[in-house]
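Cross-posted from the bioinformatics board.
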Amino acid sequence: MILFSHVYKTYPGPTHALRDVSLEIDKGEFIFLTGPSGAGKTTLFRMLSGFDKPSSGDVRVAGYDLTKARSGEIAHFRRRIGVVFQDFRLLKGRTVFENVAVPLEIRGERPGQVRRRVEDILEQVGLAYKSPQFPEQLSGGEQQRVAIARALVHQPGVLIADEPTGNLDSALSGEIMDLLEKVNAQGTTVFVATHDLGLVKRRSKRQIEIRGGQIAMDR
Amino acid sequence: MRLNECLRGFRRSWVHHTGMQLATLSVLAATFTVVAFVLSVSSNLKNLLSHWGESARMSVYLEDSIAPGDRNKVREVLQSDARVGSVEYIAKEKATAAFKEKMASHAPDLLADSEFANPFPASYQVTLAKDVPAGKIAETFEAISAGLDPLKGIEDVLYGQSWVRNYSAFVAALSASGWLIVLILVAGSVFVVGNSVRASISARRDEIEILELVGATQSMIRAPFVFEGALMGLVAAAVSLAVNFGFHLWEVKLLRASLAFARMAPDLAFFGFAASLGILVSGALVGAAGAYFTVRRINDGWSASQRVA
């Protein structure tokens, strides 16, 4: 499902963000990517989500060779995965329903199908009653759940989340992690980048730790 | 991208970015109004000058001793020239009669003076065809006059050379400077419109980035913005036409009321159907182009990822 093979990423400077990173993640796994700030977590997240390309090495996700993919292919790849950000990245001018519907509309789904799928996923994240509201009218936890609903509505094979609980208190963080585990139990591969080691310890999942741009631990 | 989605996007923009949209529309409408106004003034001025130019005429004076054959030859040459509109023969007697009639109020005895010697030669009065541009009257008269040189029996050719030359030069300069002003204004308006649309779209940069994140292709992202730009341009152009039409009505009313003696009102015309359509289409195109070039700069497929870094 996810394959990193001898991946290097060097930014001008030069800054070596990733050095010889190799890892393999199977379908249906739940992975925590941990590490201190500046360790290379975000760079690895960017590679995984098709937001950046490696300087050398191979990155394959959900059947796409992201090392060679062009702009148009990247757009199609992004439709096959779900991405959740720490700052939610919701469209302020659209309602909860419209935000969640965006990935389906982009895929050209029919309006009836869009309505049914959006209502289903909002029901799953417990926000069906917030459907006509705008993001600014929601709490941080609710906004993150909308973002997760948007990432899952098109039933992606992989869900990639960058610090999804970074802006939330511990109770809300727990809720979000429960939701991600539920999604994982339905067969979706979940990849969560976080610096919250307490959160990781409470869940017995595979943990990959990155330090100085290299894999320091994988258990 | 479906039209429905584009229209929804347009409505959303107005609901959530009302101030920005209003400012953009105002700038577009104001710019188009100025351009349309200059075009209208330039066109009407040209009409007015062309109208005045139609009264220009050339007198071909004939020698008293001219043979009838030579006189007919002069007429034939003039009438066969495509640049000539009309040719009228004025006999000596008719010229004298006209002179006496004109002078009657100043010298009443003149009409009754049987010994008044006829000093006037016979002549051909020549006007130009309507398709001769006002700026070319002088050189056309000169060319026609030169064509008469080889003919016998012509005493003189007059067409108010100096006045006509000045008039033609004035019209030509006005026409050239009119186009120059329009060109400068259009260039300026493209710049103003481009900046205004850019400010409006940049305020919605997040929207573009998020659409990129969820896998929208470039055409999916750009189409609603281009559609919106075109619609804004179209509305702004329609507003500019309405404002100019209002001004035109006021102008005609003013000329009829205050400057009726000048009889200029009939020469003032508003843009015809084709010109109005051209202005509307140009407005839509300028709006769409401004939006396209701006959104293209932001939506390169990687702008969202740059924000993530």
